[in-house]
Amino acid sequence: MPEYEGTIIRPPSEAESLILQYTIGCSHNECIFCPAYKQKLFRIRSIEEMEKDILDCAPAFNDTRRVFLADGDALSAPQQDILTLFALLRRYFSRLRRIGMYANTRSILDKSVDELSRLREQGLGILYLGVESGDDTLLAWMQKGVTAEETMEASRRVKKAGIKLSVTVLLGIGGSTGSIQHARATGKLLTEIEPDYVGALTTMVVRGTPLYLLQESGNFTMPDSFAILNELAEMIEHTEMRGLFFANHASNYMPLQVRMPLQREETITMIREFVRKGDPSFLKPERLRRL
Ligand code: SF4
After folding, report:
1. Ligand 1 centroid distance, CA of 35 (Å)
2. Residue range of the domain that includes 111
3. What is the CATH number of the domain that holds 196?
4. Distance 150 CA to ligand 1 centre (A)
5. Phi/psi at 158 (nearest 5 deg)?
6. Tell me, what's the pLDDT at 186?
7. 243 pocket-lining for ligand 1 (C-beta < 6 Å)
8. Is 49 left (phi over 0), alpha (psi -120 to 50) or beta?
9. If you average pLDDT over residues 157-179, what whole number do you get?
10. Tens of pLDDT, residues 226-273
11. Is residue 240 in some structural domain?
């Protein structure tokens, strides 16, 4: 088995995949809400280290069809190194069908459409991108390090290269005052991006993060659970896309999976009805929400 360094995070849809740790931590690591890789100094592991991991697990996992490359931002590795790694994966896992990894807007923009297409030809099937919000003021405030326009361009390259794009957005990050503006701007950005999958997570204010300090000092207030639902309805209302819009993460108050655009209108109506009734017994209790 490969030796993992620290906690491994992967998208829910990679639950059945073989996880190999190509990077340690996140190349950005500054988003004020994110506790994920605070203990890790970012580095890209060498091809020799990766080959050792692959050799260690190939006998037990020779049937592997999907590999997910952790940690935060494996796409930030040099193009040629990624291609060498993909060739090794294909050599040792002859049934491999898809390689997935997290990316951020910067690491996508560092690659051309041709480079991304080459990665797709060699096995890259899906990229997971944390979009969080379409509101530039909010993106700057949360120290995301990119603008909505840059994320739009990065997504365009991914789609043009024929790679599936799964993005996450963050309910509640606009706080109680910026909730609706965040929802509308994010829906607008999702419409431009046209991702294959959207995952709407609800912000968890985690001790030790700058967001926690802002909350403690009274400079950030999470919207309450019904305001979050209202924000979700508003976001879906402003999103026009074909694909799946998930809001069934462990952090969410109400699990939802919406096939867009088919179930869009009925979902908005259903959420608004819940908000109107204001009955908390249908919502996940605060103590059961998880990252
Ligand atoms: S949200 Fe993503 S980009 Fe931001 S610090 Fe966390 S892992 Fe890195």
Report:
1. 8
2. 12-288
3. 3.80.30.20
4. 16
5. -60, -45
6. 98
7. no
8. alpha
9. 97
10. 999 999 999 999 999 999 999 888 778 788 999 999 999 999 999 999
11. yes
Which pLDDT score, from 0 to 100, does residue 178 have?
Answer: 96
H helices of the chain, where?
A: 47-57, 79-92, 105-109, 113-121, 136-141, 148-160, 175-193, 210-216, 225-237, 264-277
Strand partners, 69: 20, 101
Question: Measured from the CB, is residue 25 less than 6 Å from ligand 1?
Answer: no
Helix (H) / strand (E) element for 123: namely none
Mean per-residue pLDDT, 155-180: 97
Give nearest CA residue, ligand 1 atom 3: 28
**In terms of Cα–Cα distance, which of 231, 146, 242 is closest to 193?**
242
142 C-alpha vs ligand 1 centroid, how far in Å? 10
pTM over 0.90? The answer is yes
Burial state string for 43-57 with b = 16 or more CB within 10 A and e = fewer than 16: ebbebeebeebbeeb
| Percentage of the chain lying above the pLDDT 90 cut | 88
Indicate the number of domains in the chain.
1
Nearest CA to ligand 1 atom 6: 34
Q: Is residue 1 one of the residues assigned to a domain?
A: no
* C-alpha 73 – ligand 1 centre gap (Å): 9
Quick check: is 141 in a domain? yes
Structure tokens at 15: 């639950």
Q: 5 in a domain, yes or no?
A: no
CB environment 251-278: b (16+ within 10 A), e (fewer):
bbbbebebebeebbeebbeebeebbeee
